[in-house]
Amino acid sequence: MARRPLLNLGHLLRTVRDAGGVWNVIKRLSRDGPAEIRAGQLVGTDDYGNKYYENKNYIWSRHRWIDFAKWKDFDASQVPPEWHGWLHSMTDDPPTKVPPVKRKFRQDHVENVSGTSRQYVPYSTTRQKIQSWEP
Q: What is the pLDDT of residues 56-98, one digit of tens each?
């Protein structure tokens, strides 16, 4: 019974070391919460600065994850398609080992900007039916 707390402490220290130190653990706790402190091998980085990790000791659906480059405003549309396939285990090889085939008809990946200040807002060419009152 006395060895169990020591094993948990050793696991905690190993996780803090693998996560990049105490400062990175504090940063992840403030952004993601306590359930998201994970340690794994860095597999690659995409063009947007997102980092992709893998740890095969975790359960199958949770063994690959992403550390977004943006601090607060991140969502799933910031993951390029080739990394999306790897994250969801559609392929075993990450895009760093097997680069995707370049096709003429494919466009570059662009994140979804709906609901942000960079979204497209069309302007009206018709006159308003109700005029706002100005004193």
A: 887 788 788 888 887 667 777 888 888 988 999 888 889 889 8
Q: Output the six-digit token pair for 3.
A: 């060895």
CB 82 within 8 A of CB 100: yes
Which residue(s) pair with 42 in the sheet?
A: 53
**By C-alpha distance, which of 59, 50, 58 is closest to 94?**
50
Q: Do residues 41 and 55 make contact, with C-beta atoms less than 8 angstroms apart?
A: yes
- 21: alpha, beta or left? (left if phi > 0; alpha if psi -120 to 50): left
Q: What 3-state DSSP class applies to 76?
A: helix
Check residue 67 and report its DSSP letter.
Answer: E
Distance CA(97)–CA(54), nearest Å, equals 14
Distances (CA, A) of 62 to 19, 67, 74, 105, 114: 16, 14, 19, 33, 28
Rg of the chain over CA atoms, in angstroms? 22
Q: DSSP character for 128?
A: P
